[in-house]
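#struct-help
A.M.: can someone run this one for me? Single chain, 622 residues.
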Amino acid sequence: MTTTGSTKGGWTEYITPEGKRYYFNKSQNINTWDKPLEFKTVEEIAATPTPWQEHVHDTGRKYYYNKTTKASVWDEPSDLKAIREAQETIRQQQREKGIDPDLLEAKEKEKNANDPQVKIATFHELLESKGVTQTWTWEMAMRAVINDDRYKVLNSIAEKKSAFHDFQNIKKQQDKEDKRKREIRNREAFLEMLKTCQGLKPGMTWRKAIGYFEGDVRMDAIKASERESLFEDFMVKLEKETRENAIKTQRENVAKLREIFREDKRIDVNTPWRTVKVNYNDDLLFNALERGDRLLIFQDYIRELEREEEISKRNETIKRRKDARKNRESFRGLLYERYKDGQLNLKTKWHQFVETIKLDERYLRMIDSQQTGSLPSELFGDWLDELEEIFLRERKKVREIINDLAVDFSPKMTQLEFISAIAGHPLFSSLNNKFYVNFYEDYMDELKEEDRKREKDAEKRRRKIENNYFDLLYSHAVKLTTNWDELREKIASHPSFLAVPIEEERLRLFKEFTEGKESESSADEEGNVDDEKKKHKSHRKHKHKRNRSESEEKSRKKHKSHRKHKHKRNRSESEEKSRKKQETEANGQQQSVSYLTQPPPQFRQQPSASSVQEEPEEGESK
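D.P.: on it. C-alpha cells below:
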C-alpha cells in the first residue's frame, strides 16, 4: 500500500496495488472504502445521504434520530451539520446564478415522493405535531391523526403501525435520557448540600450526619437507598482532601522555615545544629514542626549551602576559562593586526616576533599565571599554519594565472616585473596582496629549479650523444692517422653522426678521440696497461669522464630539497605527495629540443626524430 500524502481531519488517503483508494483514521483505527466528508467536494457533501433526522420534542427542543443505529441525540451531529452547510452553500451559488433553489427542492421532493424513508419521516412529523407520546395506543393516535392529509402518506395500516412504534421508541429513548440528566442534577445538588454543611467532619457516620439535612429538598430528591452511598463517597473524598490540606500546610511551614534559615546570616555551612536550636527556641513556627522535621529542614538547607558553594566554585572556574578564551582571542587579534601591518608573515620567527610585542597588554595577559590553555608561541604557530593554508590556496590561483598567460617568466625577473605580468588576469584582483612577495619567491625558486634540471638533462643528453659518437668512431677503428674527410664520408649518414648538429663540434670530438688514441699508444709503449684494458680504455674514458661522484650527487640533492622546502611548514604527507605528483607531471610534459640548452616550457619546440635518441636509465649499461 502506498499513501498519496493527503491527510484531512484525521483521515489519510491510501492506494492499493490495484489502484483502488481507501481511507484510514489513525485516532479511531477505522478503514473505509467510502470517501470521508473531509475529502469530498461541496457538491459531493451536499449530495451525501445521512441517516440522521431532525425532530421536535414535546418541550419544543430539537433532537436528532439516527435511523441506522436507532440512537437519538440532542446536539446536531457534525456530519449532518456539514451536509446542511454544503447544501446552503450550493443554494447561495444557485441564487447568484439566478436559479430558485426552493423551486428545485420542490421538484426534488416531488421526485422523491415515493421514497419510503421520506414517507416515514413525514408520518413521524404528523405524530409529533399531534402530541403523541410513548404512552399512547395505536387507536388513540389514529383518532388524533386520521383526519390529517399526512396520514395518507403511508399506504397500508402495517406501515403506519410500524412507523408509530418507531416513533414511540424514539420517545422512550428521549424520556430515558431526560431522566438520566435529571438524576445527575439531583446528585450534584445533594453533593453541594454535603459540601456546604459546616457540621460534617472526617470520620462521621450517616446516622449522625442525617440530622443536619432533615427537611432539605435536595435530600428528598434522592432515593433513600442511594443517600448513604453518596454520603460515604463524599466522606472518602473529604478525608482525602483533609489529608492533602494537612500535607500542604506542612509543606508551607517547611518552606517558610527554610526561608527563615536562608535569611538568617548567622547560619553558614559550618554552623552546628545545637546553635540553631538555641537561637530558635522561642520561635512559634519552629516549635510548630516536629523535631525530626526541623532537623531535616536544617540538614537540607546545609546541603543547599554546600551545593551553592560548589556551584560558585564551578562558576568561578568557568569564568576563568572564559577569560582565558577571551585572552586567546585578543592575542589572535594582536597577531591579525601585526599581519595587516606587514610585521607578521610566513618567514617571521617567534623569538624575533616576541620582542616586538613583549610590552603589549594582550601578550602580558597571555603569560599571566592565571591564564590556561595554549601558550602564545603555540597560538603563533597555529596562526602561521593557517597562513600557510591560505597561501597554498592562493598559490593555486597564481598557477592558474601563469598557465593562462602567454608570458615568458624568467628567474631573472624582479618582483615588480612578476606582479606586473600577472596583474592583468581577472583572478589577480582576488589574490591576497600580503603574499605577493611569497608568490614571487616561490615561483622564482621553481623556475630556477627547472633551469637546473634542464641544464642537468641537457648535460646528460650531450654526454650520451658524445658517447654514441665516440662509439661510432671506435667501431670504425679510428686511429691517430685516420683522415677526417675520408672518415666523414663513411659515417655521414649514421644517426650518431647526425645527432651532433654542428660541424665544428664533430671535428672537435674527432680530435679529442684521436688524442685519446695517442695517449693510449704512449701508455702501451711504457707497458703500464695490459691488452684487455688497452682495448677499451679510450671507450671508457670518454663515456664516464664527466659523471659526478655519488657523494657529490647526494650533496646536490640535499641542497635542492632544503631550497625547495624552506618556506613550507607542517605540510601534511598527502599535500607533499600531491605537489610532487604535479611537478612530475609538469616535468614529464617537457620535450627536449637540444642536447645543450632548453627554453622555458611555454616556448619549447617539438624535436625532430633524428635530433635526440632515447636515453637509457641512470646506471644502466649500454
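A.M.: thanks! The longest helix spans residues 291-340.
D.P.: also worth noting: Residues 531-552, 558-576, 583-622 have pLDDT under 50 and may be disordered.
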